[in-house]
Design a protein that fits this description.
The structure is a single chain. By secondary structure, this protein is mainly alpha-helical. It has 15 helices and 6 strands. The strands form 3 sheets. It has a two-stranded antiparallel sheet with strand order 1-4. Strands 2-3 form a two-stranded antiparallel sheet.
Amino acid sequence: MTTLSNPLRMLFSRAGSYPDGAGQLDSDAFSPNTAAGACPECHGLGVAHTVSEASLVPDPSLSIRDGAIAAWPGAWQGKNLRDILTHLGYDVDTPWRKLPRKHRDWILFTEEQPVVEVTPQRDRVAKPYKGRFWSARSYVLHTLADSQSTTMREKVLRFMETGPCPRCGGSGLTPAALAVTFAGKTIAGLNAVPMTELAEIIRPTTELTAAGTASRKQSSGEGNEVAVAITRDLLQRVTVLLDLGLGYLALGRSTPTLSPGEMQRLRIATQLRSGLFGVIYVLDEPSAGLHPADAEPLRPALVPAPALVPAPAAASAGKLPAGWNCGTSAGTTCAGSTPTSRWAS
């Protein structure tokens, strides 16, 4: 898919529609695999490990004093955090669900770490000390990052949630890259549509006959000569995959989810578009692992390329041919004999 992703990123960089006042981005800014394009929160993975109010406070009917914030540590450290909240003016005896939203968000998610003088009321001898407050999220993330205790790490892992990154929506891209559109869609949107739909989206641009001159001063380059050139090249690449019956795939499809047959056809498509000359391809069982309906599109797709294709299926009929439509006569077998005479010679 890389051979398609590269021109698509270039298309958004050179011919995308930018928001007013936004500067032009390089093509690297449209890839989650680069420092320039990776989302600052999920680092380009598209998946974030976060905490939520529901995971940190499983029982909102409890008060803070009764242990509503399950993610907080127990014993003295938990009592310390509760005492700090009391000295900061927060109510620790009201059920969690009845606390103001502003107070709940600050207690759970603030990055602030105020230090206050605490005079504990639970000890016989109340000795003041300086206590530092940690929000529930800060405590969980700090424990995961720095704790050497396996038990502590396993405990706080129970409060983590894994899902699409809330900042990039699972695309792994920066907000600046997601603000650029082409044909009304972001690059994440085009990566998500099947290639049959992608071909139809870019086709109108390839058919422009009066394209304008490219200029960096334009906020949109969808109608200029650069857009036409890139979309035509991209459409040619997509057409090869459509001919091989892969039009249902999306550019954002992850490699581990591809079947062996899909991977094999993608490799064939890469070779067919490589533009090499003076090369003959020997394809041994190119249809192995494919459904007969998927193997049939290989025949017309391979006709333009010089290829020798051993066909064991024909050997069962008493012949050892090589090739589909090979030879100068377009269909004449260039080599063939009975198995017995072949090995005897």
